Amino acid sequence: MLRLKLRLILKNKQTRLILLLTLSVSLIISVIGLLSYSGYRKGLDTELNTPNIELLQINLDVTNRAFRESDNKALDAAYSRDVEAFARLQTDEKSLSNNASVIERLQKYLKALSSHEEIHSAEVISFENHALVSSEYGYLPDWDQAPDTTWVPWIRDIQRKPLLIKRRWYGTNHENGTVELLSLARPVVKDGQVIGAVLVDLDYDRFFSKLYIHLSNSQYVYDLEGELIYPKLKSSVPLNEMDRVLKELDVSPYAYVEVGGMEYMANQTFSDVTGWRLVSLVPMDKLLKHVKLARNMMLWLAFISILAGCSAVYYYNYAAFRPMKRINSLLNSGYKGTRQGGLYDLEPVIGKLVVEFHRKSLVVERSLPELRSKYIEDVIQRRMGIQEMRMKWEQYFSDWDGSSLAVMIVSIDRYSTWAASFPEEDKMLLKYALNNILLEWLEPHWKAVSAPDEQSGFVVLLQFSEGEDGATTRTGADTDVDAKESVLLRKSADRLIQVVGEHLPLTISIGIGHIFSDIYEARQSFVKGREALGLRLYEGYGRSHMSTDSMGEGAHVSSAAGNRNVEIIRAIESQEAGASIKLISQWGEELRLHRTSPMQVYLSVHELMEELLKWCMTHSVTPPDQLVDYHWNQILTLDLPDMEKQLFSIVADIGEKLAGHRQSKEFVRVQEMMDYMEHHLHLNIGLQEIADQVHMSVSSVSSMFKEETGSTVYDYLTGLRVKKACALLCETHLKIAEIADQVGYRNENSFIRVFRKHKQVTPGKFREINRCSNGYADPPKGRHFGNLEDKFED
């Protein structure tokens, strides 16, 4: 019951409006409260954090200054001659008596050093003999006899560290110590070896009495090993929780931490002299007390507004359920004392309606038009099997009936020229407008779905609507129905062409495939429609074509087209005025006379375009713009007159550039090389002889010849020799060795190897094959060479 009520409540517009306003107001209140609190916290960071960091910096400067003064004294002592002499002094009686004056001067020096009010005492320690001199108790030959030995466990660390700073007690252990000290040690070095140490002991209490301590915060000092240096008394924050505070701070200048249920602002700074870390903790409870109260009040106000909105929704919808409650009471009126379904019996009925509505909504939400368009594209391109095709057809086209189907191909005429006249954004908008016009014009009479067809148009799947304009569902008289539907479809296509021409700056041609009933036949209908659209080649732009229209024969076009392409290229090379254009004009007249299959014509022109482009690249002629940007779709949307104009323009452009190229110095030089090679084939010439003939270097000849002809000098010369050898083999009775000599090979085996590499047979076999084909000799028995003669044509 609750689920049913929620469904009905959420579907009501006024209810949704109340909920939206309630949530919006509560969200605005919450955001204001949180932003105010955040703003105050940021301001607090600025106002409070800066003074605390400055206070820490002041204390850091105080400690650094004191340590620098003591460290300078320790360094002076470490480099003193008496200190160095004592560190190397032997402990036998003779050495002591001879150096008594050194020990006496050193003790006076240490007493003078410790006379500073912050320095408690000073010692010089010898590592070689374990002796020491102290300002407190003088000379001792063994440091274990000293009244103060708490420095012994760590003093040898000075051998790997240039400075040691330790907190310790004066005495033999921590429990019995009397005075707390901060000891600063510096090494005594002789010849790169640490032989002793100077230990300066600072009075702990005097040293830290100079720190500035704020009443509301707690300050801590830690050394490099993380041991607590200051304070030595109990603080407001438990020391066992300070390790967690240090981890949260890491290397940040400040952070907010929680210790013992209270929030603190922690600040820290580091000393570059001692390596100490100075940390300050400031309690935040008093500072944030009123701000937190204001924030909490704002959040409670937001919660109260949500409750008020929900109450309004409940009260507003209370009346909506009165009829249902009345139905419930009527259903249960005759069954007192028993629990009946009543209103619950309505839920399955309502649930079924809701599920049906939800299913239809899902179809809309899944972008059915886009799915249908993608489906048509996949069917045309054969990207799915029959089972998947029919399953998706039933799923996406459940509202289509069993009427006939047809495929219509809409193509923009002169697409390349049209596309070049508009920027990309305008071109996309015009295509979008064309698609909308197609669907809107066809919609009253046909069910239509469109999909992109390459770049130049659309492919449209159509179904004849029952009872409109005489279109009917297919019955036993399929032929009559197909004829009637074809006539209606042709009329709609002609009218569509006219409408597009009136509203858009373009013209279209339409190809219509045959009528079919099974979606599996859509691909065949598309192919027939594409063939029908090809009639644009002969009949011009802005027309519709059915698959039943005449397509032409074109039986012998492939070989003839290949020969014609060769003739056109030879005409361009001959530089005969108008020869290539005349050939193209003759070709156009033949096409109009015989109406050759359009697809074969397009294929022939496509091959010619590619051959022209390849020829330009091979002969170092800059191709025309039409060839540089050439693609297959560029000619598919042209009629025959426009195709001829394009070919005229291309061959004329190539002819002009070729004429200019042949006047160049490089072309003339290459022709001289070719003439020299052709007239001196009988000599054993090479690249050096050719270079000498044209008075150029070998590298220049090689690069120039390659750039102009696309071939190397060696390959061209070898081709000439093999061609001349073929002629001599067929026309003379000379021996193979004699022919090899006449084409520049002094070694018969070298000639046979080169000839077989180019012709795939030996010279003798080549002569035998060609004489048999020319009738000069009987064919050899038991050998079949098929069409090998085609392979040896030059």
From TrEMBL:
HTH araC/xylS-type domain residues: 671-769
PANTHER family: ARAC-FAMILY TRANSCRIPTIONAL REGULATOR, HTH-TYPE TRANSCRIPTIONAL REGULATOR EXSA
Protein name: AraC family transcriptional regulator
Signal peptide region: none
Keywords, alphabetical: DNA-binding, Membrane, Transcription, Transcription regulation, Transmembrane, Transmembrane helix
GO molecular function: DNA-binding transcription factor activity; sequence-specific DNA binding
Classification via SUPFAM superfamilies: Homeodomain-like (SSF46689)
Pfam families with a match to the protein in the record: HTH_18
Transmembrane segments annotated in the record for this chain: 20-40, 297-316
Keyword Transcription regulation recorded: yes
